[in-house]
């Protein structure tokens, strides 16, 4: 009996669903690129990992409980099942680990669960090793293999660096390179409240008037509003009100002629935002309501944050996401700077020496190329890079027979184009002499310029920020803004607790 029981247990361990036995070699034959036959059973190849690992699924005997298998191909010509699970997915930047059932990280070499994560393990990226721990990251979390997880702020993601043992945290145009050790040992710091701003949030979404209305329409704001009466405070509030008006009402057809709300004081601005909310619903219902019912999805969410402030300048970060139908929303972000010493908002025209404009433009393009190469994971030639971004805004079809309305469908306009420095729609490709220099601003790290999706690249590539360090930019600038590196964001700006 004991011998029979032992045999039964061994078979239980070795045998997976549908007859696959873990660790037992199988003869395999490829039918095509995505299909593999193992001892007469047909499997779909879901993923290939390196040269010898395959994630497969038996579609012939499939149901909701049919597992995936991780197979390893050996030089003897056999395929060896390593593990079976409901779901198995690869982990980017490694061939040593896979995700199991969206919860566990599996060590292929040692054939065991490395760790179980409190967050999702699908879509992980391997960062490297520190001491005896391995690091992985998802879109919003960095996980250590002892189970410790570091949450990232909503607008933050991380990149692997060339500096071993370090990771780069990215928030818009601002970055911070931090060691694995400092990240693991980070402690929460007591946050100090900025006495010069009022944090204001409010939702101006339309509330349905009856059960028959289906409405997801309106706008919301999450703002750092300067409280004071200095020229910089007044200018920032005025810019903020105009930017909110432009984006919140952008998708409404009858949005022309809406004045910028009063903003001479904090209270005035809050009242003006409430007025925008009332007007938005009025215009929306006038345009889209059918009889007494409104069915609509049209949204705009806006965030404005102060990111740097000193005696020389103040800089704010603007983010908005608009949705008016289609497969995705249309986000946009940028920075804006007010020069306290000279007075006024900065742009290229009042900040870059005319004689150095071309040199500065080349610096911007060099910075954009670094981002472009990172995005596409290749080292492109200067000619290929410039050809791509210089011509991206041009229509890919002949527009000579189209009227203005039809031509407008081929263009992705932004409400900030008129003042940001974007040259707008034209049929000609840019050159290095006329490439637009948009959204010029100052950060503690250097000068930043921003390009929105569809301006120089596709939607999936996201926003492009060109950051020119002061040691390079100062040769071209009329004034020096480099004395405030202490304003660079601390680690607490990037992680949450």
| Tally of separate helices | 9
Mean pLDDT: 89
Biggest sheet record:
6 strands, antiparallel, barrel
Poorly predicted regions are 1-18
Total count of strands: 26
Amino-to-carboxy terminus distance: 57 Å
Overall structural class, as computed from helix and strand content, comes to alpha+beta
Shape, per Cα inertia axes? globular
Question: What's the short version?
Answer:
This protein has about 500 residues and is of the alpha+beta class. Among the domains are: about 195-340, 2-Layer Sandwich (Heat Shock Protein 90), CATH 3.30.565; about 345-495, no CATH class.
Walk me through the topology:
Blueprint: H1 2-14, E1 26-32, E2 35-38, E3 41-49, E4 53-57, E5 68-73, E6 78-85, E7 88-90, E8 97-100, E9 104-107, E10 112-116, E11 125-130, E12 133-137, E13 141-144, E14 149-152, E15 156-160, E16 166-171, E17 174-179, H2 180-184, E18 197-205, E19 214-226, H3 231-248, H4 266-288, E20 295-309, E21 313-323, E22 330-339, H5 357-376, H6 382-391, H7 404-408, H8 417-420, E23 441-443, E24 446-451, E25 464-469, H9 470-473, E26 495-496
Parallel strand pairs: 19-20
Antiparallel strand pairs: 1-2, 1-6, 2-3, 3-4, 4-5, 5-6, 7-8, 8-9, 9-10, 11-12, 12-13, 13-14, 14-26, 15-16, 16-17, 18-19, 20-21, 21-22, 23-24, 24-25
């Amino acid at each position: 009996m004991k011998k029979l029981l032992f045999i039964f247990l061994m078979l239980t361990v070795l045998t997976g669903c549908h007859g696959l036995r873990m660790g037992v070699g199988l003869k395999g034959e490829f039918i095509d690129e995505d299909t593999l036959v193992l001892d007469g059973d047909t499997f779909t190849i879901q993923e290939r990992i390196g040269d010898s690992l395959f994630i497969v699924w038996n579609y012939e005997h499939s149901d909701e409980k049919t597992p995936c298998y991780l197979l390893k191909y050996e030089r003897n010509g056999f395929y060896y099942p390593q593990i079976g699970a409901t779901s198995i997915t690869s982990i980017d930047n490694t061939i040593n680990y896979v995700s199991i059932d969206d919860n566990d990280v599996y060590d292929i070499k040692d054939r065991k669960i490395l760790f179980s994560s409190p967050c999702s393990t699908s879509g992980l990226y391997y960062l490297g090793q520190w001491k005896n721990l391995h690091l992985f990251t998802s879109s919003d979390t960095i996980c250590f293999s002892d189970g410790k997880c570091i949450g990232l702020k909503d607008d933050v993601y991380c990149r692997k660096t060339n500096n071993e043992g370090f990771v780069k945290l990215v928030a818009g145009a601002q970055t911070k390179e931090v060691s694995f050790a400092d990240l693991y040992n980070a402690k929460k710091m007591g946050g100090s409240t900025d006495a010069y701003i009022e944090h204001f949030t409010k939702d101006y979404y339309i509330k349905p008037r009856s059960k028959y209305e289906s409405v997801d329409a309106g706008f919301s704001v999450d703002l750092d509003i300067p409280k004071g009466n200095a020229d910089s405070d007044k200018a920032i509030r005025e810019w903020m009100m105009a930017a909110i008006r432009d984006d919140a009402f952008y998708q409404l057809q009858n949005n022309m002629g809406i004045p910028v709300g009063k903003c001479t004081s904090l209270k005035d601005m809050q009242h003006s935002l409430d007025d925008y909310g009332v007007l938005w619903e009025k215009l929306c219902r006038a345009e889209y309501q059918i009889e007494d019912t409104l069915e609509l999805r049209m949204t705009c969410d806006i965030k404005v944050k102060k990111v740097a402030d000193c005696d020389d300048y103040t800089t704010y970060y603007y983010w908005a996401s608009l949705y008016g139908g289609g497969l995705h929303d249309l986000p946009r972000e940028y920075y804006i700077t007010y020069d306290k010493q000279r007075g006024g908002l900065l742009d290229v025209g009042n900040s870059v020496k005319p004689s150095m404009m071309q040199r500065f433009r080349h610096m911007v393009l060099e910075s954009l190329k670094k981002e472009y190469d990172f995005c596409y994971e290749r080292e492109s030639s200067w000619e290929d890079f410039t050809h791509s971004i210089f011509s991206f805004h041009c229509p890919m079809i002949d527009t000579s027979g189209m009227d203005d309305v039809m031509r407008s469908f081929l263009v992705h306009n932004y409400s900030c184009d008129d003042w940001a420095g974007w040259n707008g729609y034209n049929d000609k490709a840019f050159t290095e002499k006329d490439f637009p220099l948009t959204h010029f601003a100052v950060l503690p790290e250097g000068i930043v310029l921003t390009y929105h999706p569809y301006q120089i690249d596709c939607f999936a590539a996201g926003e492009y920020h060109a950051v020119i360090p002061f040691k390079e930019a100062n040769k071209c600038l009329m004034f020096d803004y480099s004395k405030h590196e202490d304003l660079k964001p601390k680690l607490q700006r990037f992680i949450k607790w």
